[in-house]
Design goal:
Layout: E1 8-12, H1 16-27, E2 32-36, H2 39-48, E3 53-57, H3 65-74, E4 83-88, H4 92-100, E5 105-109, H5 113-171, H6 176-187, E6 194-200, E7 207-214, E8 221-224, H7 233-245, E9 249-251, E10 263-270, E11 273-281, H8 292-352, H9 357-387, E12 396-399, H10 400-417, E13 421-425, E14 432-435, H11 437-453, E15 460-468, E16 471-478, H12 512-522, E17 526-531, E18 538-547, H13 558-569, E19 575-579, H14 583-595, E20 599-603, H15 606-616, E21 620-624, H16 632-641, E22 649-653
Parallel strand pairs: 1-2, 1-3, 3-4, 4-5, 13-15, 19-20, 19-21, 21-22
Antiparallel strand pairs: 6-7, 6-11, 7-8, 9-10, 10-11, 12-14, 14-18, 15-16, 16-18, 17-18
Bound molecules: adenosine-5'-diphosphate (ADP).
Adenosine-5'-diphosphate (ADP) binds at residues 450-451, 454, 478, 480-483, 491, 496-499, 508-514, 538.
Amino acid sequence: MTNEEAVDILVVDDLPEKLLVIETILEGLGQNIVTARSGREALRYLLDREFAVILLDVNMPDMDGLETAAMIRQRRQTSRTPIIFITAFGDDAHSAQGYSLGAVDYIYSPVVPEILRTKVGVFVDLFKKTLQVRRQAEERVALAREQAARAAAEEATRRSAFLAEASKVLAKSLDYDATLRGVARLLVPELGDFAAVTIVDDRSGSWDNLVVLKDPIDGSRKKFHPSRAELDPALCETIRRVLETGEPEHVAPARGMGPWAQATVLPLEARGRVMGTLALAGGPAGPRPGTDDLALARDLAGRAAIAIDNARLYHDIQEDDRRKNEFLAMLAHELRNPLAPIRNAVEILQHLGLKDGDLGWASDVISRQVEQMVRLVDDLLDISRITGGKVQLRKEPIDVASVVSRAVETSRPLIEARGHRLAVELPREPLWVVGDRTRLSQVLANVLNNAAKYTADGGEIALSVGREAEEAVFRVRDTGVGIPPEMLSRVFDLFTQVDRSLDRSEGGLGIGLTLVHRLMEMHGGRVEARSEGPGRGSEFILRLPAASANGQHREGPKAPAAAGDAAADRRASCRILIVDDNQDSARTLERLLRISGHEVHTAPDGPAALGLMDSIRPDLVLLDIGLPGMDGYEVARRIRERPDGARILLVALTGYG
Ligand code: ADP
């Protein structure tokens, strides 16, 4: 309110002419004059208006001025409103009573205008000042309230920004250590100057502690991994209890943790399990009991627990996967070792069986089954090597026709054994791709074998190859058992088989198509399965980027022939030394080569082999790589160092693919 603003003055008198006189006198003050003709009317006005001053006639019929004043004083809102009585001159008895009722002044009628104006003016000024003070106080309260609200809003924004940032940091990595480091970074100095994260190992129950603190002297962040014994004893005991109860606790460190007098220990909970704790202390923002910061810390603890738990689960899964892959690689290797001597022995049997029908038949059976086993073990070995990133492609430009002929050559025995008809359609123009010939043939042979395996005897298999836009596309269609729609994409997953209740006569492991898929990806290509459904045949489509036909890259047609000639030359008898610690392998190979007319010697290890070199003077050394003691590479080096070393053909034998 400004001083110019008018305030209300209440004038109470039963006589209208007296009211008019007073009203006229007070007009000069420039305020609102409100008139009432009785005490009751005055009280009604006073219900909802505040007056600067009340002028009250003492002598009124019905309720007189004194009664009215008494009622005015009784009401809390008007208990302090100044009252000026207007009374007949010399009415002292009334005066005394009036003062006792809280009158502030008396004016005798007939009134002297100057006196009335002056007295009322004093109360008007006083009232205006009071109003001003009150308004200023209200403004200050409103301002303080507004500031508090703004601070609270800023605080809330800071918290939600912090939690959003926390979620981002925690979601960044599935690596356990990185997640823990992220948690530590969020805690200090945002939530405190000291933080200790303790994670309990599921199996051993041991604690993994990470302590981060802001150095009280230079303000730098320090991080270390104390053992359980190195933690403050009281803190350690509290952590143990929180791990047990899952309830947060406050603790005063026993030895003192630097300048921090109190720490709060919160449980880290995930999947309904307390997996560790989070201890926080110190700093202006350090969480004190019952504060919002504590709520923030608990919220963060919840998020951190989930992130740490995820990282641990992921780590466990990866670890399991790694161990499984290692096991598969080992298994494949171990299974493969005995296969070589079996294969050799079978060949010897087949040689002997030429004259004996039963022996020939039995050795054919063994041979077929061994070949099947070799294929399985090779797949197993391949998949574990591809998964381990150990396979490298030997890429070169190749004509798709050569891939087809190799694959068909591999699959033909199975296709014929099942009595299928195979139709092959090649592109009219040569079609080139860049890839690893052996691997691409393996891919196509795998798909052809599946077509033969999953088609009832006497079915149709169609292989067509052609150029479609920028791609070389191989399609293998069969009239077999087909694939249900929901399995079409899943057949490429490792160990996935559509019908596991089959009599398993095919003996598959569910690896072949995974190999196909991975090898195609490594070639920048892809594979897709199509089928109208069970019983309606399947189609596998392999796509590779087509290469431009480049004369320079074309294989010289002579190359294979030249290799063939060389092979033919070597068919003449030669002196061979077999170096292998696996006696069965060495002996069977020795006999096999002897049957082929060669002079063959064996040595069980490197030193023995080197000792025989002078007396045997071999043309060819078949050298196992994994020899005990001196390995095959070292033996090869020593042989090469001999004066005649360069002339000797060295062939490595290894089960490691
Ligand atoms: P495997 O043949 O050793 O079981 P694969 O990875 O080669 O493993 O194939 C996975 C599964 O896909 C097979 O078990 C089979 O159920 C299905 N499948 C593959 N090729 C065909 C096909 N041509 N027709 C029908 N089903 C097939």
